[in-house]
Design brief:
This protein is about 30% helix and about 15% strand. By secondary structure, the chain is α/β, with parallel strands linked by helices. The strands form 2 sheets. It has a 6-stranded parallel beta sheet. The protein has a two-stranded parallel sheet with strand order 3-5. Strand 6, helix 4 and strand 7 form a beta-alpha-beta unit. Helix 2 runs antiparallel to helix 7. The longest helix is centred in the N-terminal third of the chain and has 13 residues. Bound molecules: adenosine-5'-triphosphate and magnesium ion. The site of adenosine-5'-triphosphate has 19 residues, from strand 1, helix 1, strand 6, helix 4 and helix 6.
Length: about 210
């Protein structure tokens, strides 16, 4: 079994995240897909909902999803969340021959070159970029050179090595974002088509995003 991580703030977790995670289990074959909520995010200026609430909502979202897991290392840590640190920690815990995929949306790829030690990420994992409505491929020259150098043409499920390759894929395109959901709640609009019912109930009971 390989491992695929989908990192993010999940503020809140939504049907776009869940659809990607479920599609990844089919697309990658024998793979355990895990959502990886960050603790203290490095890249966000704005304050985010407490780790406790975000974790509770993820637990509610995956309760009926036996194929999906949660990687709690970042959200349970009081240190700022650097992906490279998480990858090193996870890599040290698993078989060195096991493929580890870090999955991110196209919007996130556009900022990858600002991540701490970003050029070392591929030493520990493969990177799988998922198309996202409204997000274009990077135009930054450093990033485009890096993409050309590392892009792998074979299917990710056929890759033999445990880390080091970059892949692009198109899964179901769902035009949903946490930003849009927070906006809806603030305006008193329904969010039932964007999040699972238990998460919508949790948001309303705990008065989040008002
Ligand atoms: P926000 O609007 O607060 O940034 P978000 O919807 O982008 O929230 P994140 O927690 O930032 O959610 O996303 C985690 C990861 O999932 C990122 O890599 C992001 O690109 C990806 N992602 C989230 N929603 C989608 C989607 N609808 N399609 C493709 N990728 C997505
Ligand atoms: Mg985002």
């Amino acid at each position: 079994m390989s491992i695929a991580l989908l990192g993010g703030t999940f503020d809140p977790v939504h049907n776009g995240h869940l659809a990607i995670a479920r599609d990844l289990t089919d697309y990658l074959g024998k793979t355990h897909v895990k959502l990886m909520p960050c603790g203290i995010p490095v890249h966000r200026g704005q304050s985010i909902t407490s780790a406790e609430h975000r974790k509770a909502m993820i637990d509610l979202a995956v309760i009926n999803q036996p194929k999906l897991g949660v990687e709690l290392g970042e959200i349970e840590s009081t240190e700022p969340s650097y992906t490279i640190h998480s990858l090193r920690r996870i890599r040290a815990q698993i078989d060195e021959k096991k493929a580890l995929f870090m999955c991110l949306g196209m919007d996130a790829l556009n900022h990858l070159h600002t991540w701490h030690e970003w050029e070392c990420l591929l030493n520990y994992c493969h990177i799988l970029v998922i198309s996202r409505p409204g997000a274009e491929s990077p135009s930054d020259p450093t990033l485009t050179r890096w993409i050309q150098k590392n892009l792998c043409e074979i299917e990710p499920r056929s890759v033999q090595k445990p880390a080091g390759a970059l892949f692009f894929c198109e899964l179901r395109l769902l035009d949903i974002s946490s930003t849009q959901i927070r906006h809806c709640v603030r305006n008193g609009e329904a969010i039932h088509s964007y999040v699972v019912e238990h998460v919508a109930d949790y948001i309303s009971k705990n008065n989040l995003y008002k």
